[in-house]
Design a protein that fits this description.
CATH architecture of the domain at 271-517 in chain A: 3-Layer(aba) Sandwich
Oligomer: heterodimer
Helix content of chain B: 55-70%
Strand content of chain A: 15-25%
Number of strands of chain A: 20
Structural class of chain A: alpha/beta
Number of helices of chain A: 19
Radius of gyration of chain A: 25 Å
Number of helices of chain B: 14
CATH topology of the domain at 271-517 in chain A: Rossmann fold
Largest sheet of chain A: 6 strands, mixed
Largest sheet of chain B: 2 strands, antiparallel
Shape of chain A: globular
Number of strands of chain B: 4
Shape of chain B: globular
Distance between the termini of chain A: 47 Å
Strand content of chain B: under 5%
Largest interface: A-B, 36 and 25 residues
CATH superfamily of the domain at 271-517 in chain A: P-loop containing nucleotide triphosphate hydrolases
Structural class of chain B: mainly alpha
Radius of gyration of chain B: 21 Å
Order of helices and strands of chain B: HHHHHHHEEEHHHHEHHH
Helix content of chain A: 25-40%
Chain lengths: 528, 354
Amino acid sequence: MTKLLEIKNLNKSYDGIPALNDVNLSIAPGQIHGLVGANGSGKSTLMNILFGSPVIHETGGYQGDIFFQGQRISLLNCAEAIAKGIGMVHQEFALIPDMTIGENIKLGRENTYHLTDRLFGRKYSLINRSQDYQSAAPVLQRMGINLELGIKILNLSTNIKQFVEIAREIARSDLQLLLLDEPTAVLNQSDAHKLMEILTEMAAAGIGILFVSHRLEEIQHICDTVTVLRDGKKVSQYEKADITINSLARDMIGHLVSKANAKKREPMLQPVITFHNFSVKMPGEEIKDLNLNIFEGEILGLTSLSGHGKLALGYGMMGLYPAAGMVTYENAGLSKMEARSNILKGMYVLPDDRQDLGILPEHSLEDNIIFTGNQIKNMFARNPAWGFLGFIDRKKAKQHVSQMIDDFDIKCSSSKQRVRELSGGNQQKVCLARALTVNPRLLFVAEPTRGIDISAKEKILQMLIDINRSVKTTIVIASSELDELKRVCDRIAIIVEGKLFKVLSPDSSDLEFGLALSGEEGAACAEL
Amino acid sequence: MKANKLLHSEYIVPALFLLLAYIAWQFSGFTGSFVGNQVLTRFIRDGILVLSLIIPVVAGLGLNFAITVGAMAMQTSLLLVINYQAEGIRGILLVIVIGVLLSVLLGFAIGHALNRVKGKEMITTIIIGFLGNSIYQLIFLVGFGTFIPVINQEIILSRGIGVRNTVDLGMYRNTIDKLWLLNLGGLEIPLFMILLVLLFAGFVYYLLHTRLGQEIKAVGLDSGRSALVGINVDALRVKVMIISTVLAALGQLIYLQNIGMFDVYTAHMNTGIISCAALLAGGASIKSARIRHAIIGVFLFHTLFIVSPQAGQNLFNNAALGEYFRSFIAYGTIAFALIINIKNENKQAKQGIS
């Protein structure tokens, strides 16, 4: 069989730091090729090269050859890749939020009226919107989605967005090769399963697929061949029959992952903060009349089905959404929820939306880590007497930051590197380092392991445990990863429809958790 | 709740303008037909210039103050053709051809310049407008009679170098202005010219509903993601600037021939500010603009523009006050609309978080 895509001796480096090292890979038509690797292993770089992302060209191009349908290609932008029949499903969604589902699916290949086609050419021809919608609708229906195509993307939930993103590629008649970057990260199991079926169908129709995922079971389930990348090198390749999750995980990390596990201990009883009838008006994640005690020195897990309010507590504390109710912190009432004063009182929140709220992507590692400490507590002033007019003591900052980089094992070229360039796991470590810089008594963390590979995940969980044990920081982890919470927390609070439903011990059975999460004994319909 | 909604809708600025215009009209003592005639004339003069602003706004480039460059391109073409003494329809066609070619070139250059200053397009277009103005003045003050040979002595200053302050467009006057003139009571309606402006409105509308228009919208809404779905963002932005500059050039031609006289050094000066103010008065923002904003805006803005000096004079018995009123209105509109719009957008963005 002729190869659809063939990559030979691909090398790519950013500013002298190698990202890809002599990678060889080939995909035949109708084949699903899995690509796994820890964050920073070069998967994204490979995808970017294949899709002609301008970043590659701007940073000096690459060495090696890429053959597509037998021809050597060198892509300067995504438009060229698309013209060749390459499609990509982006992890961050390449959907225009203010456009409708139909417009997004057909963007760049709209149906037009014949008359104006003839008069002015395709590019300057009037768009036939109803025909557009008619041709886009069946694609969505095939995925089991019956939605009005006139709905704007920004009104959709994340998993529907993911399907629209995929629909855009499926709707193309000229698609030859589909690149999928973590398409299932935001999907629940049944939706992920649905996606797998669609991909299998596409492959059966002769489309080559390159599938990147952190979920190894999916890779094992669907891929014909798997390539494992580590530190930019191809470590191994498996054929369908030989794929096992354990070997993939071992190859990805280079060693077996030791799972973070907190030792059980005596329950703490001294409340550090008490919420009484606390409500946060966060659209889609509201909490209403929450009553909850958080004890000094514990790690409290906070979980709920999505949309039931586990994320709102931290946002409410920082005044990002209107909050109401009584909060007692260290035996004194908190009058207002405002980030600055609460940080000064020793509370800190790390939001789940890392890209938009957690990091300053264009700033350096150093600036990110010292930011809160410097701005709120003036910890890095050369002479604190100058207040906000003072200069930053760069020497002190640098010392602190290098200490943090060592402690947390943050992978970066230097403390001056822009945080945007780091992998997700390292960005999360930077966030944690920034939080620790202000030395909080009470730390709220939301979804700390989302979008992070398994090895970095465990490191971050271990870091949370270490922080709790060594500096006695009380930690509240809001997460949907029950398994992780069970390993790390002293208690796990279950929130249903914005109210505290139950507090369970981490030793409780999965059945107990399942029942609690769905709100009532036996009645599991709360999600719908 | 409802009042709050109105306050934050795109109608707040036009509504305010309507109110102001009505009050000012009451004080001005002008008859309705006088104001109506004046506004119609202004609609014809300024309509296409305002329309030329819409596409850059949709493409996310903000208000294109550099439409003055398009205006200057057309004026340059006009002066050259007058210098070579081409008259009548033949002359007008020649003016159009040279003017359009020149503005395509200039639009291309501005587009490339703007690709280097993403996110700061508006301030850049303002400065480009100023720069263009000084180059233009240099050419016609010094260039004519030195390296540009003078053929038509009538337009040259008596010292032999430099173009006069005012050039008569007598040979082109009333070629199209008085076509299909309708008389309705005291109201003179130049039907052909109105249709011409509406034709341009239709052209902009059409363009925005083509595949090119869809790409323009996508880039305006989210240029990063647009690049990922295969749109060549930089090339598209250049195209947008070319279209806008050419439209502005044609708009300036309509403007000048309607006036019939041509202030060589100042005719283009306020084109950018006035047109932007008119567009904003119609409810547009620096992020969204539609045809209706242009049309409503031209009517509202110019009504106020016409009646306010007289109203000011009647109220304060001071003739000099009139001109102050005008510039106050132009800049006031822009400042007010910018602030109101940005406030609204922030509000919407906040509601969008989930």
